[in-house]
Amino acid sequence: MALPPPDPRFVLRGTTAAVHTLHFSCGGQEPDFPILFSGSESGFVHVWNLKTRRVETALDGHGRKSVYWVETMGAKDRLLSQGRDQRICLWDLAEGRTSVTDSVFTENVGFCRCSLLKVAQERWLMAMAAKSLEEVQVLELPSKTSVCTLKPEVGAKLGMPMCLKLWQLDTGSQPWLLAGYEDGSVSLWNLSMGKVWSQLVCHQEPVMSLDFDSEKAKGISGSSEKVLSIWSLNEQQNLQVHKTHELINSGISDITIRSDKKILATAGWDHRIRIFGWKKMKPLAVLDYHTATVHCVAFSDHRNPSERLLAAGSKDHRISVWSIYAQT
Amino acid sequence: ELDKMQVLRLCSTKWPVCFISIPDLGHLFSVLKYLNRWYKEDGVRFFSVVPSDRVRDNKSCVEPALALLEQLVRAGGLAELLWEQCEPRAGGPCADVLLGLLVGLPDRVGNRLRGRAPGALLPRGYFALLGGAVLQALSSLPGGSDCSVSFVSQVVGKVCVHGGQKEILGVLVPQLTELTQSDCIWQRICWRLVESVPDRWMEAVLLGFVQNALSRLLGNLVVKNKKAQFVMTQKLLLLQYGYTTAVLQNVLGYLSLDNLRRALLIKVLQELLETWGSSSAVRHSPVEQQLYISKAILICLSHLKESEIESCRQELLTNMMAGVKCHLDSSLPQIRRLGMIVAESVSVRINTDGPVLKFQVTEAALPGELEAVEKPQTATQGVPEEESDTELDSDDDLVPYDMSEDKEIKSTKAPVYIRDCIEVLTGSDDVHKWDATIKALEGLIRKNPAATREVSVELAKILLHVEEKSCIEGFAVLRQKAQVAVLTTDPIPVAQYLTSQFYSLNYSLRQRMDILDVLVLAAQEMSSPKFYGKNKPSNAQKPCIQLLPESSSSKGWRQIVDERIKSKTRRLQFSLGQGQSQAETDAGPNEFNSVAGHFFFPLIQNFDRPLSTFDLLGEDHFVLGRLVHTLAILMYLAASVVTPMGKALLEFVWALRFHTDAYVRQGLLSCISSVLLSVPAAHLLEDVAEVLVETRCWLADVVEKDPDGDCRRLALQNLLLMENLKKKLETAPS
């Protein structure tokens, strides 16, 4: 008899709005405390102290418009947040400051989360949906200079980009961008050439989320359908379907592979978090705690693997934090 | 060397003493030889000496004689005796006497000594030694073609009949099995040995042999010997059923191993199937026997070849079809299952090209023993596939958690009002809505008793007729729960409706049984102490607005009284304290009491009035069985105010007591238990004493004669209950 699934380690309450995005920052040394950033529908970014499990600060920078992406740039005191006010803000949180030092006006009205990739010391690339509906723009941070604009071919009819993932094989090699589109296809963009390298129709519905494992050259995407699609890149960097995994209930809003590439978590519209083994997509656990759609899942970046956590934010205003398969 | 006259003289007078004086064993045997010849000529004295009159009172004579006898038996005297009887010219009238003496020796010694006999002369030891002696005699058979083993066979046969079967064959059979393995002379000797056993003892010998490698030991005995044939093909298979599966496999395997015998095997299968398919046998023989016969059929089938089955396909088919019908007709689930399993196996074998019977028998439902029978067949079909999927790169170190709770989520909203539910159930085409309604209905009914009461009968009617629209999981259970909820909420009108429908036209058996189930479940719920207060009709029936203070004050009233009682009562904390608290939680009136009559009497009224579609006393005896069980439960749950019910039920039982269906009889016996348990003893004596006396005779009869084990047990329990009742009444002051 299999063990019953675990309960959450703890639950963070108090955002008073649906939680749309989560990001851990736990890699610091003592006396730094582990931090979880959460972006909520009310426009606040909450900074949670995971030691006391309380809100340290609540950042209000998006005019009470929903925040749907947060990410740190290097250290935990430099935070990027993207909001429905069409702005991406860079926060300076050092020494207790809570000020927006810089911002980008995207002019994009979609829900596409940005993707950030560190390409060199103090140099990042950020992919974001641009003003024009089908376009993706890649900026260099912190200089904000535009690297390229990725336009699908005329008549491709991909629709809006829904999710983005910047990656490179190893530091210094050329960066690639994976983008999931409204028509259900996933495209691999070559940034230096500025054009689509390979394309694959993975879903019938818009791609809601994708994640990619550059070591195994294998990725996974989810949509509003009942299937997870797993695809891979062959030697010629062409996308091909690896397999699909049937789900019980339809709708996936977020997928995250843990950094050690052993397991992955999905956030489901059926209120459940699902854990799979990444190698063979073996279903491992179904975490049923939330009472509304789960919007996002995130794994922590603890240095000590056994401390690793999984957090999920939901429409029911709660963030559940789990410790699952931390030992393996 | 002693001469004959010396021995004779000594033996006729004080023989034991003379034996003691014989200096060594060599002498003993020479004496024995003389003795043998002597009793051949002059009649027998040797073994009969021990209990003879002459030494009866003389202890000093008996004990040495006994010692001598024991020595003789241990030293191989028996083998020598047997051997001599195998000689061609042996035999004659004294052989019979010798046979009797040889076999009866332990009894004679035992009678004389009353338990003080030495081990070698007790039945167990003696017969084992005799078995050894038989082997020894056979191994050195006198030469010549005309030697005879018939005396030895007679010894073996007679010992088997006299209760030494296990001991003598326990020695003989394993040795013979080993010896015959490679030696064909031994094989012939063995066949002769068994063939020469007289008919009257044949059965006992054969039954001892059936555990072993029969074919080698018996040869074609069944073909040559009528008696053996009868035992092997009739008695072992059709008349008795206490043997293990291994014995069955042995016997049928033996029949299948030789072409001469295979004809018998087909005959056996036909006879088995005939018995299996006979409705009288299905109804009257115990379940164990039917299981035994089913096993035999399956084994037979596995031994027979295609061509052999072909030769008698038509008869097999006829018998099988008859059998399926009467098995499925049975009200005992085991029998139905047996019928399905056997019919499936038979039909697979006889319909090689045509359609094959296939029942929905789950693997788990297979009775364990049958599984064991089927296993060897499947095991030969091939080694189970090994998992080729041995990829090292797997998620094996990640142990999954239980994911059984991961089910589909339905988004349709369930109705909130009872009347909405009625609307959906009667007219809606929206399957999702219908599903949600069925799921929500029970909760709604329980939450809104007042609203339910307004439409209770209508709701009961809808629920009785509603049919599954979509493949919703647990539909039957959900519907039943809702029905129970309606019935408990508004017991009298709904019970009246349901009981009247039970006997009306145009219902399926399933619906009628649903009615019975619902009545029982509701009765159970209403009679349980938890029910009280959860669903108080008095509160909800009042259409007035309930004032908050009123309910709180009534609560306060209760509390105050309780507290006062507490303060005024001195409690003995030890032992009593526990009982008290338990009584507090359990107390509460039995709500079912007051309405039991509405459940009970309409059901008992019309059982003997057949309708065109529903004949309880005829072929719908399965429903009758359920009805009887239901009545028993209702009676039991009604408890203590039920004298008229008890009386009616006893009369009902009396009318049906010789019903042929075991399930019905079980129900009747439960009815009697319920009456005995529920009706107060004093009332029983007053009102139904005569019926009880009659019932008691019937019960005693059932205990002895009923073919069904459960019936016998229930009857015995009833008798015990009656006995207890009697004791109670006797001890109570009159």
Automatic annotation (TrEMBL), chain A:
Supply the InterPro entries for this chain. Answer: WD40/YVTN_repeat-like_dom_sf, WD40_repeat_dom_sf, WD40_rpt
The UniProt keywords, alphabetically, are:
Repeat, WD repeat
Spell out the Gene3D superfamilies in the cross-references.
Answer: YVTN repeat-like/Quinoprotein amine dehydrogenase
Where are the WD-type repeats located?
200-241, 287-328
Q: Reply yes or no: does the keyword Repeat apply.
A: yes
| One Pfam family cited in the UniProt record for this chain | WD40
Xref: PANTHER family: GUANINE NUCLEOTIDE-BINDING PROTEIN SUBUNIT BETA-LIKE PROTEIN 1, TRANSDUCIN BETA-LIKE 3
Name of this protein: G protein subunit beta 1 like
> Which source organism?
Nothoprocta perdicaria
What does the organism's lineage look like at the top?
Eukaryota, Metazoa, Chordata, Craniata, Vertebrata
The primary gene name is GNB1L
UniProtKB/TrEMBL annotation, chain B:
Q: What is this protein called?
A: Telomere length regulation protein TEL2 homolog
According to the record, the residues making up region (Disordered) are: 370-398
Where in the cell is the protein located? Cytoplasm; Membrane; Nucleus
Family, per entry? Belongs to the TEL2 family.
Q: Where is the composition biased (Acidic residues)?
A: 384-398
A Gene Ontology molecular function term of the record: Hsp90 protein binding
GO BP, one annotated term: 'de novo' cotranslational protein folding
Sequence ranges assigned to domain Telomere length regulation protein conserved in this UniProt record? 415-523
